[in-house]
Amino acid sequence: MRDVFESQLKTLKDDMIEMGSMIEKAIENAIRALNNRDTELARAAIEADSEIDEQEKKIESLCLKLLLHQQPVASDLRMVSSALKMITDMERIGDHAADISEITICLAKNNKNVNLKVLHEMAKETTVMLVGSIDAYVNKDLDRAQEVLEHDDIVDSLFLEAKKEVIQLIRKEEDHGEEAADLLMIAKYFERIGDHAVNISEWVVFSITGKHDKNY
């Protein structure tokens, strides 16, 4: 019976790694599409969202099966319950990649080369957080998870810079108001991706230590 349980736990870990790879690719495509106003790549990121949703359902089903049939305890229980929480945040990251890509398509149609410099930095920093949170889970790395938690302040500061850039852009180029608002929305999505990476890392910490800073 234990051998079956161990095999299912390994499947869970592999499925989580796969979902992590899927959202990393979706974000990478969304960022490249935004930078190059590449509508084809943006559509690829949007289409990937349904695959990410299916992966979430697959993992959720496996977790519930483990909880109901195997009744895990201690660290095994924390691993399974943490995975259930993490996939919600991972799925929402996929949603935000699609959201960014939808705005990118609109920007490309308008044919106006309007940019916020800080967006490139936000994209880089949120990617660091996302990759770090997934790596922390895969390797059960408490220090890596902590690094992601501490990184959140950087992304929050960059979002404040983005708001300032938008105000300056509107003042200088009044006819770019709609595009500026779209870019601010993209900045907000990047900030949310950072928040979800933080949530993932907090559940990694819980899976290892049994402690969680927030009450759920």
From TrEMBL:
Q: Which domain of life is it from?
A: Bacteria
Matching SUPFAM superfamilies, A to Z?
PhoU-like
What does the UniProt entry say about where the protein is found?
Cytoplasm
The chain positions of domain PhoU read 17-103, 119-204
What UniProt keywords apply to this chain's record, in alphabetical order?
A: Cytoplasm, Phosphate transport, Transport
Query: PANTHER family, from UniProt?
Result: PHOSPHATE-SPECIFIC TRANSPORT SYSTEM ACCESSORY PROTEIN PHOU
The name this protein carries in UniProt is Phosphate-specific transport system accessory protein PhoU
Q: Which organism is it from?
A: Jutongia hominis
